[in-house]
Amino acid sequence: MRRREFIMLFGGVAVAWPCAVPAQQPAMPVIGFLGTRSPQDSVYLLAAYKEGLAQNGYVEGTNVAIEYRWALGRYDRLPAMAADLVQRQVTVITSVGGEPSAFAAEAATSTIPIVYVVGGDPVKEKLAASFSHPGGNATGVTLLTTLMEAKRFSVLRDLVPGASLVAVLLNPKLPGAETSLHDVEMAASAVGVKIQAFRASNDSEIDTAFEGIAEAKPAALAIAADPFFDTRREKLVGLAARYAVPAIYQFREYALAGGLISYGIDIADGYRQAGVYTGRVLKGATPAELPIIQETKFLLVINMKTAKALGVRISDNLLSLADEVIE
Questions:
Q1: pLDDT digit string (tens) for 194-206?
Q2: DSSP characters over 238-287
Q3: CA 183, 211, 169: angle at the middle one, nearest 5?
Q4: Which residue ranges make up each domain of the chain?
Q5: Cα gap 223→60, rounded to integer Å
Q6: Neighbouring residues of 307: CB distance < 8 A, sequence distance ≥ 6
């Protein structure tokens, strides 16, 4: 190569170096978090979810972002919220708070991975092909809440053994609510107890339902599992106290808020598991290959202060079975 050509070539390269485009850093993945509840009553659940994410090395604001959408108990808001998350091209959607959130997410996308937390049987609800191989773009955790109504009735019967009438409050807008009611009615019929159902899907209907419950004078009340009711926890516990009706609820948080008794899974662990699965999806796992997790840790919590206020005697059997007794 001639000296003149060498100098021109070297000079051209030298001029080009400062203009070279630096390698781009990979974009931070974004989780679309779709919840039926409210952020106020989900603080400890979010903490558990983020704990699960951290098990896979993901920390919000550091190497993953989270877009939150809360329906505040209004299931009709979920489809638009899910569509918005899809439009924003989130990396994965975590849908929590039962089947309404999962249905909205699945209706919005067949390509973005979904990790859900539901209360019933995801196979029966057609959210999965099977528990071991969900198929499609979704998998998750079932809390078994809507499948536990008959068991909660048996706990309630132990609480008021001579009961001839028990009331059930349910939200007719929750998928599977009527099936759960049927399960309770079958369990009650087997032991000669009559069930009277009351339905509510908003605040005014809850007030009306409790007025009807007060008139019916049941021996006890079962508050059916429902994410909307979770957002109205203080209201429900307060009305049960006002009308002096012994009531059973699905989660420990109700007993902590002054409810008489609760029996159900450890919901925080369910959210933690959802965080773990979301982290695995972010790392490249396919939802179709992640088996659906069935929660197996159940908690019986009794609030003795409320029992004394209601004049309810807690049997030695229930006390021996309790995981926690609130004094």
A1: 999 999 999 999 9
A2: HHHHHTT--EEESSHHHHHTT-SEEEEE-HHHHHHHHHHHHHHHHTT--G
A3: 20
A4: 30-144+266-297, 149-264+299-326
A5: 35
A6: 260, 313, 314
Q: Which class in CATH covers the domain with range 149-264+299-326?
A: alpha beta
Find the helix or strand (DSSP H, E) in which 317 lies: helix 316-321
Cα–Cα distance measured from residue 122 to residue 117, given in angstroms and rounded to the nearest whole number? 10
Provide the mean pLDDT of the chain. Answer: 91
* 108 vs 206: CA distance, rounded Å: 31
How would residue 10 be classed by pLDDT, with cut points 50, 70 and 90? very low
Amino acid at 2: R
Interhelix angle for 78-87 vs 99-108, to 10°? 40
Q: What would the two tokens of residue 223 be?
A: 């508050």
Out of 3.40.50.1820, 3.30.530.20, 2.30.38.10, 3.40.50.2300, select the CATH number for domain 30-144+266-297. Answer: 3.40.50.2300
- Cα 23 versus chain centre, distance: 41
Average pLDDT over residues 145-149: 85
Task: Write down the residue that tokens 């920390």 correspond to.
Answer: 59
Q: Are 131 and 186 in contact (CB under 8 A)?
A: no
Q: How far is 140 from 129, CA to CA, in rounded Å?
A: 13
For the chain, strand residue ranges (E) read 30-35, 65-70, 92-96, 114-118, 138-142, 165-170, 194-199, 220-223, 247-249, 261-265, 293-294, 298-303, 324-326
Question: Looking at residue 270, what is its pLDDT?
Answer: 95
Q: Looking at the whole model, is its pTM more than 0.90?
A: no
Neighbour count for residue 171 (Cβ, 10 Å):
22
Tell how strand 261-265 and strand 298-303 pair up: antiparallel
Average pLDDT of the segment spanning 77-87: 98
